[in-house]
Structures are given as structure tokens and as C-alpha cells.
Design brief:
The strands form two sheets. Strands 1-2-3-4-7-9-10-11 form an eight-stranded parallel beta barrel, surrounded by five helices. The protein has nine helices and eleven strands. It has helices spanning 3-6, 33-50, 71-87, 101-110, 136-145, 171-180, 199-208, 224-228, 252-263, and strands at 13-19, 54-58, 92-95, 115-118, 125-127, 130-132, 152-156, 163-164, 185-188, 213-215, 233-236. The two termini are 27 Å apart. With 264 residues, the chain is of the alpha/beta class.
């Protein structure tokens, strides 16, 4: 499958999140590696069966996050990604949160994945762990050095759970910078997980972007039509789980409900 025909302008695609439970070496790790891997695979199979277009595997359970992953996290995230990739036929991507583009690209390359998500690509932001510098140059150099230019880079701009160090930078300026640095798609989010992406932000970016614009948070059955009336696609996670609890498994019924909202 050609990933650039899935994640493309005007395709109205939906990417479902596989939120891994807390990985080894993190504060929340429960000690059961088999459970981490089996839930990741089951969530991926549920998403595929329910009809999403692609999947992102992410270390969402690793809060509190650092900008970069430790070695046990990289190993575990790669293992989960490998099993997910083997289990499904739809495109698979990687997000090494909070912002480890080298780990994400390395995992994607070795496992034959199609894309990565990079939360802090061109903006300088502050979060509870300190300041995160943009990684666009490192990301694109690494992609070239790994001979991985077939792997798409989906870049967040002014990403959720952070504050801009230079708040005067407009969303349009961030979008133009990300496009100029080689991003293959732009992700726009609300202020936090589960918070709806403001329509006016999507509209501003869509007006100046020649690459796909993706709503990256808060998309659900009630707003998916409105969001994707403007955005090219959506990344959906928490609204596909019972009560919006991140550690819960993906619900087939909730995925169908959200996708049904798009088709109405």
C-alpha cells in the first residue's frame, strides 16, 4: 500500500492510536511485558477491523515524559511496533514521545513502517520536563542517513501539552516553517489530549498548506464531520476507549461510532 495515497490532501483519512501501556524503565511500568505487547496487538487488530486507515504506535503510558526515550523504552516500543506491523495490513507509524525523532525513525526503519509523528519539529516549547528544542534538522538528516526517505514525517505544530517559548509566533508561521523543513503532513491539536482542535486553527493552516493537514486531538463521533470538512485527516485515540481512559483497550463499538459520524 502506498502510504502517500492514504495520507494525502482531501482523502479524509483516520489514523487510530495504539497507546502502549507504561514501558519498562518508566515510572508506571507494571512489570508485565507480555500484557504491554498483547494489548498493543489487540488494539491494532480492533482498529483495523473497525475500519481506520492507518495506525500509530505510541508510548503513551510513559508519563512523566522526557524529550528523549531511554534504552529500555526504545527496545519495548520497537518490540510492540514489530508485532503490530506483523498483525495488520494497514499502514503503521511510530511516535516516540515526547520528541525522540531518532528513535521513531530507527524503529520505523527496522520494522518497515510507513510514517512517524514528530511532536516538536520547528517550534521551541516548554513543558513540565523543561525546554524542548525543535528537531527538524536532526530528523531530516537522520531520515536521509537511514535511507528512510520513504517514511513520511507528520509534524505537529505548536503541539498540545506545551507552551510556546515565543508565543508571538503564529500558527501559520509554524506551518510554513515545517513545510519548508520537509514535513510530509501537519498535525494541529487542542491544548491537551482529548481537547478538540480549534476549527479556526485548522482553517488558518489549511489555507497556506500544500501538504495534508491533520486534526490531532479531540476528534469524536460528534465533531468528526465538522473537523474533516476542513482537515484532510484525523488522529484519534482517547475517544475510542471506554470513558476516555488511556489505559483501556480500544473499543470496536466506539471506533465504529466515530467512523459512522464521518459517513453521515
Amino acid at each position: 500500500m502506498d502510504i502517500r495515497k492514504v495520507i494525502a490532501c482531501n482523502q479524509k483519512f483516520v489514523i487510530g492510536m495504539v497507546h502502549c501501556l507504561a514501558l519498562p524503565g518508566t515510572a508506571g511500568f507494571g512489570g508485565d511485558c507480555d500484557k504491554i505487547l498483547s494489548q498493543a496487538v489487540q488494539d491494532a487488530l480492533t482498529l483495523e477491523k473497525a475500519g481506520v486507515d492507518a495506525i500509530i504506535v505510541e508510548n503513551m503510558g510513559d508519563d512523566p515524559f522526557a524529550a528523549l526515550l531511554d534504552t529500555p523504552q526504545v527496545a519495548a516500543l520497537s518490540a510492540a511496533t514489530a508485532l503490530v506491523k506483523q498483525a495488520v495490513k494497514i499502514p503503521v507509524g511510530v511516535d516516540a514521545a515526547f520528541n525522540d525523532c531518532v528513535a521513531a525513525l530507527s524503529i520505523a526503519k527496522i520494522n518497515g513502517c510507513d510514517f512517524i509523528r514528530v511532536p516538536v519539529f520547528v517550534d521551541t516549547v516548554e513543558f513540565y520536563g523543561g525546554i524542548i528544542q525543535p528537531c527538524a534538522r536532526l530528523c531530516m538528516q537522520t531520515r536521509r542517513n537511514l535511507d528512510a526517505e520513504n517514511i513520511m514525517v507528520l509534524a505537529d505544530i505548536q503541539v498540545k501539552h506545551t507552551n510556546m517559548v515565543l508565543p508571538q509566533v503564529t500558527i501559520e508561521a509554524s506551518a510554513k516553517a515545517a513545510i519548508g523543513c520537509g514535513a510530509d503532513g501537519l498535525i494541529i491539536t487542542g491544548s491537551a489530549i482529548g481537547m478538540e482542535t480549534p476549527i479556526e486553527m485548522i482553517e488558518k493552516v489549511k489555507k497556506i498548506s500544500r501538504i495534508p493537514v491533520i486534526a490531532g486531538s479531540g476528534v469524536n463521533a460528534h465533531n468528526i464531520n465538522e473537523q474533516l470538512n476542513i482537515a484532510d485527516g484525523a488522529i484519534i485515540g482517547s475517544s475510542l476507549k471506554k470513558d476516555g481512559v488511556i489505559t483501556n483497550p480500544i473499543s470496536y463499538e466506539l471506533v465504529r461510532e466515530v467512523l459512522g459520524g464521518l459517513r453521515k
